[in-house]
Design brief:
There is one protein chain. By secondary structure, the protein is α/β, with parallel strands linked by helices. Helices cover 53% and strands 12% of the residues. The chain has 24 helices and 15 strands. Strands 7-6-5-11-12 form a five-stranded parallel beta sheet, with helices on both faces. Strand 8 and strand 9 form a beta hairpin. Helix 19 crosses helix 23. The longest helix has 26 residues.
């Protein structure tokens, strides 16, 4: 809710409580402790703008029928210090309240006064939150899951920022460990094949099969020649990785920038190994008796730790058994730490930097990794419950109703860069935020490039541009927008006007709900509905041609809608056109 809306609810609750106290004093109700009750916005606004269950909640305490309690409230309530103009009893004892014109004028005044700050709140109290998202493997190009994760993560960070959190965006680069060894082996094989022929070396069974590996080897030869063919294998691998890896990371950074995503830090896994942070977490786990040796490797007692974690969260033995938990290797027989070990060190590093809540956007295939990551934080002395993971389902690209896997331009699997070449960034960022992370998504390529109201982002942008056009057209006729008096704003009494203003008033609460649930799609849905309600209002209520006070009041309403649409689009780094 906006500040006005929040005041409306809190002031009304205080008035209902005061009415109950007054009824007790007069003897209408017996002397009893007033139970807690709710003030809420009903789903069907025909019966009232707000409703309270105070009478139902008080039936046991006051030992009387809810209807009688409701009558006592209505008889004793003073609405003069609230935004309500009247109330009535419905059914067995619900109390419905109706907003006064002052409420609607004050909402518009708040939007006008706060401007770009409207929707912001102190809900997060400046808590330091890190949102880690995308974090794609640097051994290959970014894919559609990364495209969805980028939009979700960046927009979630924006919502958290607006809700009053101190937000940090981070990309974790796995530039060390087993995947880099596989990368080196793959590059080495493609280099030798390029120089000596396909049969010169067998490609590693677990190597990276993508065309990008062939391209990297070919580019290396183009720029450096083939002299490395006679070098020591370790020297050749290092040279190939040193050539290809920075280029892959630079391409990732370029794609993210094109996607309008700016990270506060690109964190390199190699930093953890160089600093001794990985060895440190191994030593901590050893000191706590949570490791053992088997088959030459060092194992972490993951099953024990996660079982304790799940039991603390109310899971039964049967539920835990179904998970088939296993222990994890943290140091391989060859002496190298596993990816999981580095991941523990990385999350410890996050907490050590002062972040009190860690949010990760992960693919749904990481589902099994969540509990063990939370458990490992508990195991080394941190609070695993402060690690929150948003699991993101798969996304399919669709064109003409058919699934698309190959790029028209390259003939290869579609990468994030290809998508951004084909689809406007505005569409990609908005459309990826129209479905909750935990649902599978079909991304319609035809819809994404469509410039009509079927495309949600175009629909919202058009509402903004339409308001700009209205203001411009009236200005050309000598009508200058001016600030209205409260009395003039209270002329906005048509159902479409009131519905639109009530939706505007809900913006701040939607931001807070979005932040609490880690769901930025709530805001794309909110702004799409705002555009719908604006078009409904504009079709029902003339602006031009009305008496000057009503015309100005409706113009002020248009400007408030324009301001909130701009607010949302700019927050999500989507362009805000003034003409279309």
């Amino acid at each position: 809710m906006s500040e006005i809306a929040m005041n409306a609810a809190s002031d009304l609750k205080a008035a209902v409580r005061a009415a109950l106290e007054k009824a007790i004093e007069s003897g209408e109700l017996i002397n009893a402790e007033i139970p807690d009750f709710t003030i809420e916005v009903p789903a069907d606004k025909k019966n009232g703008d707000y409703a309270s269950n105070a009478a139902m909640a008080g039936a046991r305490a006051f030992r009387t029928a809810p209807r009688k309690i409701a009558e006592a409230v209505v008889n004793n309530i003073d609405l003069s210090k609230t935004y309500m103009k009247s109330c009535e009893i419905a059914g067995p004892g619900f109390i419905n309240f109706f907003l006064s014109p002052r409420y609607y004028s004050d909402v518009l005044r708040e939007i006008e006064t706060k401007g770009d700050a409207f929707g912001s709140s102190s809900f997060g109290k400046g808590e330091k939150v890190m949102v880690e998202f995308v974090s794609a493997n640097p051994t290959g190009p970014m894919h559609m899951g990364n495209a969805r994760g980028g939009a979700l993560g960046d927009c979630l960070a924006a919502v958290l920022d607006k809700a009053g959190y101190d937000v940090w965006r981070e990309f974790y680069v796995n530039d060390a460990g087993n995947q880099i060894e596989k990368f080196a082996n793959s590059l080495n094989a493609r280099f030798i094949q390029a120089v000596k022929g396909e049969d010169a070396i067998e490609f590693p069974e677990d190597g990276y099969q993508g065309e990008d590996i062939k391209d990297a080897a070919a580019l290396f030869i183009e720029e450096n020649g083939t002299a490395l063919i006679d070098a020591d294998e370790a020297e050749r691998k290092k040279a190939l990785v040193d050539f290809a890896l920075p280029r892959n990371i630079a391409k990732m950074q370029s794609d993210m920038k094109k996607y309008r995503i700016e990270y506060d830090k690109w964190f390199m896994e190699s930093e953890l190994h160089k600093s001794g942070a990985v060895k440190e977490v191994v030593d901590i786990l050893k000191s706590k008796g949570l490791t053992y040796e088997k088959d030459g490797a060092l194992w972490y007692k993951n099953k024990q730790v996660v079982t304790e974690l799940l039991k603390a969260h109310g899971k039964t033995d049967e539920e835990i058994d179904r998970l088939e938990l296993k222990d994890d290797v943290i140091i391989r027989a060859n002496g190298n730490p596993t990816y999981f070990t580095a991941d523990i060190a990385y999350h410890k590093n996050k907490f050590d930097r002062g972040f009190t809540t860690l949010i990760n956007i992960w693919g749904a295939d990481h589902h099994g990794h969540v509990a063990r990551m939370k458990g490992s934080m508990n195991a080394i002395g941190y609070d695993g419950d402060k690690l929150d993971v948003v699991l993101m389902q798969l996304v399919k690209l669709v064109r003409n109703g058919e699934v698309v896997r190959m790029s028209k331009r390259t003939g290869k699997a579609i990468q994030l860069g290809d998508l951004l070449d084909e689809v406007p960034v505005d569409s990609a960022r908005f459309l990826f935020n129209t479905r909750e992370a935990n649902t599978q998504m079909d991304f319609d390529l035809d819809l994404a490039v469509t410039q009509d109201n079927q495309n949600p982002v175009y629909y919202v942008q058009y509402a903004h541009a339409r308001i700009c056009s209205i203001i411009k057209a009236l200005a050309a006729e000598g009508v200058t927008l001016r600030t209205c008096t409260d009395e003039e704003l209270q002329l906005l009494t048509a159902p479409e006007e009131k519905e639109l203003i009530e939706h505007l008033a809900a913006y701040t609460e939607e931001i807070i709900l979005s932040a609490k649930s880690y769901d930025p799609t709530k805001i794309t849905k909110y702004v799409t509905q705002l555009a719908t309600l604006f078009h409904k209002f504009y079709n029902a209520c003339r602006v031009k041609g009305e008496d000057e006070p009503l015309m100005q009041a409706r113009l002020n309403l248009c400007v408030a809608v324009k301001s909130v649409i701009r607010n949302v689009l700019e927050m999500f780094k989507i362009t805000v056109p003034e003409s279309m």
